[in-house]
Specification:
InterPro entries: ICMT_MeTrfase, PPMT_MeTrfase
Helix content: 40-55%
Region (Disordered): 1-40
Family: Belongs to the class VI-like SAM-binding methyltransferase superfamily. Isoprenylcysteine carboxyl methyltransferase family.
EC number: 2.1.1.100
Number of strands: 0
Shape: globular
Radius of gyration: 25 Å
Oligomer: single chain
Order of helices and strands: HHHHHHHH
Structural class: mainly alpha
Biased composition (Low complexity): 9-37
Length: 291
C-alpha cells in the first residue's frame, strides 16, 4: 500500500534518466536520378537537402514517433502526466469549494492525490535528476497501493448511496483534512531536507557519497516520509468517513512500516555504525507502537 521509501542514505533507483528517443540522422537518398510519380514523391520525402553533418536531421514521419504512456520519461509523457494531475487538482478544488456541494471531502481527496503524486516527481526532479523516471510520479507504484486507493473511493461511493447521512461534512471530516495536510507537509519536508539522499527504494549498499541526514525534520523524526504517508493515508479515509478503510489502512500500514523500519534500520546501522545508534536514541518515528 505504501508508495514511499524514507531512507537516510540516498535515492537507490537503478534506472537513469531516459532522454526522449531520437531517430538516427539519415543522409540523402542514394538514388541519383529520382523517378516520376509515386517514386519521385517518395524520393522528395526522404531526402535531406542540408548535407552538413551539424544540421543533418530527420523529422518525425509519423505520429507514432510521439508515443504516450509507453513508460519512457519523455517530455510528452511528463507533460501529459503533469497536466492530468494539475487538472485533477484544479477541478477538484473548484468542485469542493462550490456553494451547495454535498460531498466536499470526496473532491478534497482527489485534490490531495494530485498534490501527492506531483510532489513525488518534483522532488526527484529537483534533487536527483539522474535517477528520474516516469515511475517517480508513483502513479503505478504497486498493485497494493492502487487497490487501496480504489477501495477508498469505492467504499465512499457505496456508503454515499446507502448511508448518505454518514457522508455529511462535520468535525471528523475536518480533523481528517488536517491530518492529510500535516502528513503531506511532513513528507514534503522529508524529501526537501534529504535532497539526493531521499529514496523511493531501499538502499542495500553504502556508496561513497551517502550521508546520514540528521537535520531539518530528521532532527525530530527518524522516518518523516513514513510518518507523513501514514497520517496522510489515515487522514484521507477519516476525511471521507470510510470506517472500513480506516481500520484496514491502520492495520496494513502498521504491519508494513514496522517490518520496513526494522529492516532498514539494520542496514543503516551497518552503514553508519554508532552514529546511527546515537541518532536512534535521540529521535522517534512518530508512528504508534513503532519505536
Amino acid at each position: 500500500m505504501d508508495p514511499s521509501q524514507d531512507t537516510l542514505t540516498q535515492e537507490t533507483s537503478t534506472s537513469s534518466f531516459t532522454p526522449p528517443s531520437t531517430r538516427p540522422s539519415m543522409g540523402p537518398s542514394t538514388t541519383s536520378t529520382p523517378g516520376t510519380g509515386a517514386e519521385a514523391r517518395s524520393h522528395l520525402l526522404n531526402t535531406t537537402y542540408d548535407n552538413s553533418s551539424s544540421n543533418r536531421r530527420q523529422a518525425p514521419v509519423s505520429i507514432t514517433d510521439f508515443r504516450l504512456f509507453d513508460g519512457e520519461n519523455s517530455p510528452q509523457n511528463i507533460a501529459v502526466y503533469g497536466f492530468g494531475l494539475g487538472a485533477l487538482f484544479g477541478a477538484s478544488v473548484i468542485l469542493a469549494t462550490m456553494v451547495g456541494t454535498s460531498i466536499p471531502q470526496f473532491w478534497l481527496f482527489l485534490a490531495a492525490l494530485g498534490v501527492f503524486h506531483s510532489l513525488e516527481y518534483i522532488a526527484i526532479a529537483l534533487f536527483n535528476p539522474t535517477k528520474l523516471k516516469l515511475d517517480s510520479f508513483l502513479l503505478n507504484h504497486s498493485p497494493e497501493y492502487s487497490t487501496a486507493t480504489a477501495a477508498g473511493i469505492t467504499e465512499f461511493l457505496i456508503e454515499l448511496y446507502f448511508f448518505p447521512q454518514l457522508k455529511s461534512w462535520g468535525l471528523l471530516n475536518k480533523i481528517g483534512l488536517v491530518m492529510v495536510i500535516i502528513g503531506q507537509a511532513a513528507r514534503t519536508l522529508a524529501m526537501f531536507s534529504a535532497k539526493s539522499n531521499f529514496s523511493h527504494h531501499v538502499e542495500y549498499y553504502k556508496e561513497e557519497h551517502h550521508v546520514l541526514v540528521t537535520d531539518g525534520i530528521y532532527s525530530i523524526l527518524r522516518h518523516p516520509s513514513y510518518f507523513g504517508f501514514y497520517y496522510w493515508a489515515l487522514g484521507s479515509q477519516l476525511m471521507m468517513m470510510n470506517p472500513v478503510c480506516i481500520v484496514g489502512f491502520a492495520g496494513v500500514l502498521h504491519h508494513f512500516f514496522s517490518e520496513r523500519i526494522q529492516y532498514e534500520e539494520q542496514l543503516l546501522v551497518r552503514f553508519f555504525g554508532q552514529d546511527y545508534r546515537d541518532y536512534q536514541a535521540r529521535t522517534h518515528t512518530g508512528l504508534p507502537l513503532i519505536k
